[in-house]
Amino acid sequence: MQTRALPQRPDVRLTTVGLGGAQAGNLGAARSDETVRETFETAWAAGVRYVDTAPHYGLGLSERRLGALLAERTRDDFVLSTKVGRLLVPSLQPDAEDLAEGFAVPATLRREWDLSRDGIRRSIEDSLERLGLDRIDIAFLHDPDERMDEAVAEAMPALIELREEGVLRAVGAGMNYSAPLTRFVRECDIDVVLCAGRYTLLDQSALADLMPAATERGVGVVIGGVYNSGLLAVDRPGADATFDYVRAPAERIERAHAIADVCERHGVTLPEAALAFVNAHPAVVSTVIGMRHVGDAEEAVARAAAEVPAELWDDLRSAGLIPADAPTS
């Protein structure tokens, strides 16, 4: 599988498809260790060598599961990212479930924000222990939406310090909105961002701020939420399709069908076009895809390898379905 290097850290090369770790943390439903293993091994056999996880995913379950699987591989053969900002501490309601956060796991722990230097260092130490690995390649500050000033002033400098000490190879932030990510790019010495849902075939809001800033500053962009949580994940979305984890508005569904009409004329599926579109941007180094089971892993790799003719993009531009200035080659 093709790899792309972080512009400022050329020794950190990510495969263009990455394995998203939320499902290994039981996002939405419980999954067995065997299902997680089979899914991981299918992705690995297909060439996926970038894995993204977080303490948030299943209260550490994703880190433990994926760390154990990665420990069976040669360490220099893969790139691993995890996230910081929230520590896992003993729960006040240990008999509860974590379903309020979307994960089907017992709530024996809870998340506690800590963006201090000590909190960031402890988060990395805790993740290394859960992962059982000797290093973390990339650390993302995870969704500090309501704490941006503290994140810029305290948390990110703490991550940069760990990078300079050699504990981390690259640092950045992972968020669902492009404006705060753009602030990190403009104000901090970061290497990479993870942008979820804001640069997709249906939402190109990051094209106005984040993507040009990242290009200018030499910051790599990892794309998450490439299917906008479901609407772009099938050839023809139904009326109950989701967009950003809630029921999709009718106008979003109509637009997805209009794009699908063009795709079908060129022998391309909507999900194939969704992946090809984001990967065509020169700032994008990888697309992280959630994989619930073996079929998802096989499908993701096949979609990423699909050939998409240039004429498809021309037709989408002519129909006003993608911006005229969106890179597609």
Describe the protein in words.
This protein has 329 residues and is of the alpha/beta class. It has one domain (3-318): NADP-dependent oxidoreductase domain (TIM Barrel). Helices cover 36% and strands 21% of the residues. It has ten helices and 14 strands. The protein is globular.
Please name the defining characteristics of this protein.
329 residues, TIM Barrel, two-stranded antiparallel sheet, eight-stranded parallel barrel, alpha/beta
Distance between the termini: 18 Å
Sheet with the most strands, sense and barrel status: 8 strands, parallel, barrel
The total number of structural domains is 1
- H/E element order: EEEHEHEEEHEHEHEHEEEHHEHH
Q: Estimate what percentage of residues fall within beta strands.
A: 15-25%
Which assembly state applies to the chains in this document? Answer: single chain
Strand segment count: 14
CATH topology: TIM Barrel
Question: What is the averaged pLDDT score?
Answer: 97
Number of helices, counting only DSSP H or I runs of 4 residues or more:
10
CATH class value: Alpha Beta
Structural class: alpha/beta
Helix content: 25-40%
Strand order of the largest sheet: 3-4-5-8-9-10-11-14
Radius of gyration: 19 Å
SSE topology sketch:
Blueprint: E1 3-6, E2 9-15, E3 17-20, H1 33-45, E4 50-52, H2 61-70, E5 79-84, E6 86-90, E7 109-113, H3 117-131, E8 136-142, H4 148-164, E9 168-175, H5 178-187, E10 192-196, H6 210-217, E11 220-224, E12 242-243, E13 246-247, H7 250-265, H8 270-279, E14 284-290, H9 294-305, H10 310-318
Parallel strand pairs: 3-4, 3-14, 4-5, 5-8, 8-9, 9-10, 10-11, 11-14
Antiparallel strand pairs: 1-2, 6-7, 12-13
